[in-house]
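Following up on my earlier thread - several people asked me to post the actual chain instead of describing it. Fair enough. Here it is, all 501 residues.
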Amino acid sequence: MSTTIKQEPDVVLIGAGIMSATLGMFLKELMPEVKIDIYERLNGAAAESSDAWNNAGTGHSAFCELNYTPEMDNGAIDTSKAVKIAESFELSKQFWAYLIEKNLIKNPKEFVSSIPHMSFVWGQDNVEYLKKRFEALTKFAIFKGMEYSEDRATIASWMPLVMEGRNENDAVAATNMRIGTDVNFGELTRDMFAWLGSQPGVNMYFEHDVTSMRRSAKSSKWKLKIKDMVSGDKKRVYAKFVFIGAGGGSLHLLEKADIPEGKGFGGFPVSGQWLKCINEDVIQQHNAKVYGKASVGAPPMSVPHIDSRMINGKKELLFGPYAGFSTKFLKQGSYFDLPTSIRANNIGPMLAAGYHNMSLTKYLIQQVTQSQDDRMEALREYLPDAKKEDWVLEMAGQRVQVIKKDEKEGGKLEFGTEVINSADGSLAVLLGASPGASTAVSIMLDLVGRCFPDKINTSEWQDKLKEMIPSYGQSLNANPELLAKIREHSDRMLGLEHSQK
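Reply from S.P.:
Thanks for posting it. Predicted structure:
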């Protein structure tokens, strides 16, 4: 017979990924006496979306991701999302630098390294687009230092494998941002949880499943029922504040919470695959994150890139991701995830979003039916001399794109992240995907402000937030001198030495 245990922490974090880790660090620094319970279905931290092999993008700072700078109908480049993401990533770097400075994380080389961020296009129309993008972005201080070239020799010096074997008659262009980074969010997440787990009042529970949650009728607390998946023991946990950061699992938990603010939300799962290079000579010849333009109808997580990464201390080279479709919401989820997420309040928005995104459906069908030869053909658009025997297929992570009500279309498919919180701030839920992990600090800062409105403006919290994030409350773009100072300090603390070659 299983034992029922009762616990009453102040805070419950559901999901042991980068979001919960970041929020846990914030709350423990802001409220040292806080009691936090962390629950995760799997047997370790960062085993799903935050894992290095599952993460579709590492170090998203909008330097090279062309989907963040769409061309508008009038021909102008919309820079608003790119600028916001670039500023958000600087907040992340500041917070990580603080963790290093305070010795909360020991070795930054385990999770962050310098790598140039580049964009590459071919065809005259795309060349003109990239030039306009470069001119638009470099008006902002945060993109200072970006280089642009249409010269084949210059581009070849930046990305030799990309230019080898390329048609001499192709019009090509590239941008280069030398201050880019590669981040292993799996390592970073585990480092943060290692510190959190060592602190008084913090308990971490792996292989525990949240089976139900609702507001207690007798108090303002949340009542959660949690099952130990190993022993079968059950817990009743009562908490003042609950954060759901369970990746693809968040939607089902939001539906269990049954808050008015969560009505109408649905999810559309998109899976991913990589081509992984197994030829060490090829791996060592490429040293950049090179992003191109997505196919028409492709979701943002499928923007093609040839990507150098450091994973488990070893340099890797990946291309993709190739999109796919599965009814699972998690890589280690159930095929019933999608059908069981459908409710009376979200079926309308989901059907409407499907109707308005037929190009995405067509694209996913094409991707699912690809052969290895088809994948190699896509790779050779970026590496013309790529050899089939040098590349193997690697499964990437599962993402759930947000579907929400829309007055005009009935339902809308969102490709970003969405924070939903109850009116009283006692529950917060994170849905969505890209740019996700790279902007976790910005997202959690916003969440803290929403859910702790009585404390966020106190002098104690304001002083601590400015210690953790020196530019807190200020615009880095509007203050180039502050931006330069912040970047110099962050890079020094994180051990980043950017190549100037």
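The mean pLDDT is 89. That should answer part of your original question.
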